[in-house]
UniProtKB/TrEMBL annotation:
It is a multi-pass membrane protein. Its main location: membrane. Residues 124-327 form the ABC transmembrane type-1 domain. Gene3D superfamilies: MetI-like. GO terms for cellular component: plasma membrane. The keyword Protein transport does not apply. It is found in: Cell membrane. The chain crosses the membrane at residues 33-53, 126-148, 160-182, 194-216, 254-283, 303-330. One of its GO terms (biological process) is transmembrane transport. Keywords: Cell membrane, Membrane, Transmembrane, Transmembrane helix, Transport. This is Binding-protein-dependent transport systems inner membrane component. It comes from Thermobaculum terrenum (strain ATCC BAA-798 / CCMEE 7001 / YNP1). The lineage of its organism: Bacteria, Bacillati, Chloroflexota, Chloroflexia, Candidatus Thermobaculales.
Length: 339
């Protein structure tokens, strides 16, 4: 009898490590999780190694000449679109010769003679930082306010719903622009006093999060109301389990995954709004250019050189798809039914 009880105790002690090992195995077997994680890690490595990868570095002063060679041509073609031999007989005022390929700029140059490879590397760095930080802030704010509204109910619920209606009624770009313009200076000074020089990344991410949390909070509120009325929560409440433990153990596992999916679905909009903010000069200064900023900056030359818009757009789409795939995989792994 003693031996069997000891064996049962050892089996109970081994359950947590077994469940953790099973979680890792489920993550490795989920193609959506793996694809999203690999793409984001690869893009994150490119951004982290930007000073070593980019051929041209940003300035260390306020000089606006960056990522470029003053002798570089405008819209030099990338290596795969290099023009063939020029037919001099067809050259005229109406048909000028194409810009020759310059091996110093393998991906060409933009309308301001800046090296596209350097721009894409540093643009990926800043877009990834701003986008992922904004998604995490949206997720955290939406979950916190949604749980408060769904669990406390009453006046607090009405206040959260009113704030959500207000956030959704204001145009996203206008709200982000006003918020970033108001808080950018004092937040920049606060971060500088702490020794953090982050090129206004927290300011832009926080301004984007203050607009996008509403949809996450609404979803979490509905799920909290549905979960709080379930049988196991009522039974735990009848046994005297405190509300804090009920929320952490019985409510949050059901809302974290879906909330993350809804927050990550806003990543494309976040990156586009960030590009618009950068285009009008709000929240960030050169050389911290982002992919969205690159897209809007090349809009006037879309017809003449569309490739210089397609390159940052392709990376932006890859970031959005990878983040969505990773969020879907995390939702499946966090699902209480699956565990």
């Amino acid at each position: 009898m003693a031996g069997s009880s000891t064996l049962e105790a050892l089996e109970q002690q081994s359950l947590p490590s077994t469940s953790r090992r099973r979680w890792y195995l489920q993550a490795l077997r989920d193609p959506s999780f793996l694809i999203g994680l690999v793409i984001l890690l690869a893009l994150g490595a490119v951004g982290a190694l930007a000073p070593r990868i980019a051929p041209y570095d940003p300035p260390r002063t306020s000089d606006r000449v960056y990522f470029l060679n003053l002798l570089a041509p405008v819209h030099a073609p990338p290596f795969w679109a290099a023009p063939d031999e020029v037919d001099l007989q067809r050259v005229s005022i109406d048909n000028p010769p194409p810009t020759p390929y310059d091996p110093r700029f393998p991906l060409g140059t933009d309308s301001e003679r800046r090296d596209m490879l350097s721009l894409l590397v540093y643009g990926t760095r800043y877009s990834l930082a701003i986008g992922l930080l904004a998604v995490l802030l949206i997720w955290a704010m939406g979950v916190a306010l949604g749980v408060l509204a769904g669990w406390r109910r009453g006046k607090l619920e009405n206040l959260v719903l009113w704030l959500a209606d207000t956030a959704e009624s204001i145009p996203s770009f206008l709200a982000c622009a006003l918020f970033a313009a108001v808080v950018s200076e004092w937040m920049g000074r606060l971060l500088a006093d702490l020794g953090l020089y982050m090129e206004a990344i927290p300011v832009v991410a926080l301004s984007l999060a203050c607009v996008g949390w509403a949809s996450v909070a609404r979803l979490v509120r509905v799920q909290v109301i549905a979960t709080s009325g379930s049988e196991w929560v009522e039974a735990a409440r009848a046994l005297g389990v405190p509300s804090r433990r009920l929320i952490l153990r019985h409510v949050l596992p059901f809302v974290l995954g879906p909330a993350l999916v809804v927050a990550s679905a806003q990543l494309p909009t976040i990156l586009i709004i960030d590009g618009l903010l950068g285009a009008v000069g709000i929240g960030r200064r050169p050389p911290s250019i982002t992919l969205g900023h690159m897209i809007f900056q090349e809009f006037p030359s879309t017809v003449a050189a569309p490739i210089f818009i397609l390159m940052p757009t392709a990376i932006l789409i890859a970031i959005s798809l990878a983040a969505t795939a990773l969020a879907n995989g995390v939702q499946r792994l966090l699902s209480p039914e699956r565990r």
